Recover the amino acids of this structure.
């Protein structure tokens, strides 16, 4: 009975030890473009929700932050990392989508009074899911997150939007339903760096929360883009395009074909979760944690075809 | 293989009578004591062994979509006829998932659905026989937040297509002596526990609350359902062989008094292949992927 309590105490200790001095380590992936790579773990007390890639782009006048991490602590550590690079103000905080590991650090930027920017469907989803995210992430972090942690977008992107940082522009594009129904991609035109958010997973098993068919089609479209590099939502800070999407495309295609086949062969949803996509098991981190859920979601989508 | 493992673990733990065990999980029966009193008073509830079983995952992959099933274990036994099933999730805000009454066109009381599970909890099935006896089976499930989990990203689609009904039937004569029917109804099934962050109000519950299914004019089943059922309610059941190529009529109603109807001749597809652990290798081999 004592062991779990002891472990919890140790984990909480290592988390708070980072505290006020925690500065995210960021790497420059192109001129003025900085990315921090999150760890391939679930949200845990000792990683403080630092499990997704976050970063920022520095213009002549101001800074745009792209995703803020899975807790206000990660957001604050990202803010310190920005301060270590530039004294410029943060004028935009862009969220690539609603998932908590990308958005719960937003409140750390309220002091900069930036504009918060997201997909046109982001607000509705954050309103609907926010309270649930706060409860479940609070439990996982062992820290109570209050309502102020949820910061709604001020600017909604329904198609395209250009943001001027002084001397460089970001082109934001709203995507159709894919990883979620509110995925936004961001192109830094100065360096041809494309931020894909969770439309690209590298090494970590993807999580499907939008549309399997939609995601494959968005990936195919984005694959045509001629860019210097892309930043995935999970994986290395910067990867080559479109080669880096191949494992993800293969995973999703396998999920599509095998789930469809299982449905047509009469498998129930429970049975499908046990047989579909097993060839992908060795190719991904956290496969055991998310794959069955992906199959269930794929099944619930494809059974209506 | 996984299923076997779960049976072993859960079965083992149940032998211990203390509610809180070394793994820190609360195998609490106190809510059930209250539910039992509410629904069944002082009636005796027997162990379901040889009558019914409950199938549910040990740990749910998605709390908002947990597949659960009731297995009819009477085949080849001299067990009494079951007229009604009750499904409960002890720790949910609304613990009763639903009740199902079976008619002459039902082959067995094998049913499966997908539910929301709000906490670590027992999922239990109670079977009531025609002569009034009660039998119970239960399974522990680890999941949390299912009832307040928001409706997924398909919300607009779910509302637009609300009431669309999809039926698939499979020849299951070898497996169960009839046809297996898989029914799906497009419906957001708002639980009423999803809060709107701006208004701070809970969204009104809006869910499918009854289902009436007949085949060739004879009742298969009648179900009363609650908010515990996942979005796009799903039900799997078996019909007797005499009605398998006859008209299946489904009438569903929701809590806002919408009625959804579907009527079509069942055309069962050939027997499903074996997806059990032993059968999996063949399935994987047979599937291949397109070039
Ligand atoms: Zn995501």
């Amino acid at each position: 009975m004592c062991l779990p309590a002891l472990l919890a105490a140790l984990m909480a200790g290592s988390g708070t030890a980072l505290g006020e001095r925690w500065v995210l380590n960021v790497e420059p992936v192109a001129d003025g473009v900085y990315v921090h790579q999150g760890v391939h773990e679930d949200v845990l007390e000792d990683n403080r929700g630092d499990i997704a890639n976050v970063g920022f782009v520095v213009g002549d006048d101001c800074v745009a932050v792209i995703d803020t991490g899975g807790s206000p602590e990660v957001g604050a550590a990202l803010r310190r990392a920005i301060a270590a690079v530039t004294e410029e103000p943060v004028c935009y905080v862009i969220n690539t989508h609603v998932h908590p590991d990308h958005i719960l650090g937003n409140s750390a930027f309220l002091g900069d009074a930036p504009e918060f920017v997201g997909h046109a469907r982001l607000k509705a989803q954050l309103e609907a899911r926010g309270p649930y995210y706060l409860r479940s992430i609070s439990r996982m972090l062992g820290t109570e997150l209050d309502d102020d942690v949820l910061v709604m977008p001020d600017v909604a992107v329904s198609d395209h939007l250009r943001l001027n940082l002084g001397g460089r522009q970001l082109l934001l594009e709203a995507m159709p339903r894919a990883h979620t129904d509110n995925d936004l991609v961001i192109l830094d035109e100065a360096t041809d760096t494309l931020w894909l958010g969770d439309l690209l997973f590298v090494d970590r098993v993807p999580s499907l929360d939008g549309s399997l068919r939609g995601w494959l089609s968005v990936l195919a479209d984005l694959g045509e883009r001629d860019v210097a590099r892309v930043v995935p939502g999970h994986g290395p800070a910067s990867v080559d395009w479109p080669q880096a999407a191949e494992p993800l495309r293969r995973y999703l295609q396998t999920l599509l074909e095998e789930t469809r086949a299982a449905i047509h062969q009469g498998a129930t949803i429970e049975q499908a979760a046990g047989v579909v996509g097993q060839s992908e098991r060795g190719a991904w981190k956290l496969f055991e944690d998310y794959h069955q859920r992906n199959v269930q979601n794929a099944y619930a989508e494809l059974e209506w075809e | 293989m996984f299923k076997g493992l779960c049976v072993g673990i859960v079965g083992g733990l149940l032998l211990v009578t203390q509610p809180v065990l070394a793994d820190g999980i609360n195998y609490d029966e106190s809510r059930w004591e209250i539910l039992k009193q509410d629904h069944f008073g002082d009636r005796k509830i027997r162990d379901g062994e040889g009558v019914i079983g409950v199938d549910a995952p040990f740990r749910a992959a998605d709390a908002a979509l947990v597949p659960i099933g009731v297995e009819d274990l009477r085949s080849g036994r001299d067990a009494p006829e079951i007229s009604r099933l009750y499904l409960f999730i002890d720790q949910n805000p609304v613990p009763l998932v639903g009740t199902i009454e079976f008619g002459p066109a039902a082959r067995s009381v094998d049913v499966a659905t997908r539910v929301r599970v709000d906490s670590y909890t027992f999922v239990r099935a109670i079977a009531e026989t025609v002569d009034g006896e009660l039998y119970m089976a239960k399974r522990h499930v680890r999941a949390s937040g299912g009832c307040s989990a928001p409706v997924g990203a398909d919300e607009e689609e779910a509302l637009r297509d609300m009431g669309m009904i999809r039926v698939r039937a499979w020849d299951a004569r070898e497996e169960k002596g009839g046809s297996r029917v898989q029914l799906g109804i497009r419906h957001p099934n708002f639980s009423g526990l999803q809060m709107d962050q701006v208004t701070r109000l809970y969204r009104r519950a809006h869910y499918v609350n009854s289902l009436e299914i007949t085949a060739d004019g004879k009742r298969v089943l009648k179900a009363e359902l609650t908010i515990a059922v996942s979005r796009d309610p799903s039900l799997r059941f078996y019909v007797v062989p005499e009605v398998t190529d006859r008209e299946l009529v489904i009438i569903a109603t929701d809590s806002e008094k919408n009625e959804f109807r579907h009527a079509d001749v069942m055309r069962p597809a050939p027997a499903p292949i074996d997806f059990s652990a032993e059968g999996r290798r063949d399935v994987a081999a047979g599937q291949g992927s397109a070039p």
Remarks:
- The radius of gyration of chain A is 19 Å.
- Residues 1-17 of chain A have pLDDT under 50 and may be disordered.
- Residues A 97, 99, 179, 198, 233 surround zinc ion (CB under 6 Å).
